[in-house]
Amino acid sequence: MLVTHHRGDVDGRGCGSRASGGFFGAASWHWWSVGNGRVAFWNQRRWLRTSGGGGSSSARVPILRGKVYAINDALPADGAADDYETCLTHLVKSNVISVSAATGFPKFDLMLLGMGPDGHVASLFPGHHLVKENEKWVTFIKDSPKPPPEGITFNFPVINSSANIALVVYGAGKAGSVHAALRNSQNSDPLPVQMVSPEGELVWFLDKDAASNL
Asked: pTM, whole model, 2 decimals?
């Protein structure tokens, strides 16, 4: 999927935008190579200072400096969220990233998301007020149910303005939420993952353990 969209965007427009909404330790990051004018964005789900062993994950991606837009982990979470939204605003105005004609929010060509055992995506957790945020592009959380308590996140209007989304889920601990998301479509109180609805294609990638309840 990554390769197909890379080629399609480059052939069609000469560039493309990718966004990640979390950590994927086992991911093949070479697929995020940004040649031929492509642009990658990095929205780090958990707020980890560089001095604490976390920080910007752009070092994982073997691409040219200046083509990855990571959060500024030298700032507090609220300041980093504002700084990141300012960066996106500039890139939208510069036509580096397109805008959804339907929503007016930034439109990534492809967003890569994970899912937590509770069905959360990015830093959008079940029952948390940020799930209903519909104005800001990027916001921060200081009371995350999953440690560490602080992070920044894209909100659903930006996530769902994406042209395409890949949901990558692995591990037996997530099988229950996978089942709930894919088999309980009439849930009156949907999990955050059930609220993921891009303008184009949504593809789930599950390992055997994550799919064990299907």
From this structure: 0.83
Query: What is the length of the chain?
Result: 214
Nearest to 166 by CA among 24, 12, 14: 24
Among residues 176, 60, 163, 145, the alpha carbon closest in space to that of 106 is found at 163
Which of 13-17, 76-80, 145-149 shows the highest mean pLDDT? 76-80
Residue 205's contacts (CB-CB under 8 Å, 6 or more residues apart) are 166, 167, 168, 169
Distance CA 170, CA 208 (A): 8
CA atoms of 154 and 151, how far apart (whole Å): 11
Whether residue 78 is contained in a domain is answered as yes
| Contact call for residues 122 and 113 (beta carbons, < 8 A) | yes
Chain segment 107-154, per-residue pLDDT in tens: 999 999 999 999 999 999 999 999 999 999 999 999 999 888 888 999
208 φ/ψ angles, rounded to the nearest 5 degrees: -60, -40
Measuring CA to CA, how many Å separate 74 from each of 52, 56, 83?
12, 10, 11
Pairing of strands 98-99, 68-69: unpaired
Residue 214 forms part of a structural domain: no
Q: Which stretches does DSSP call E strand in the chain?
A: 17-20, 39-42, 68-69, 98-99, 106-107, 110-113, 138-141, 151-154, 164-169, 201-206
Structural domains of the chain, count: 1
Provide the token pair at 173. 């601990």
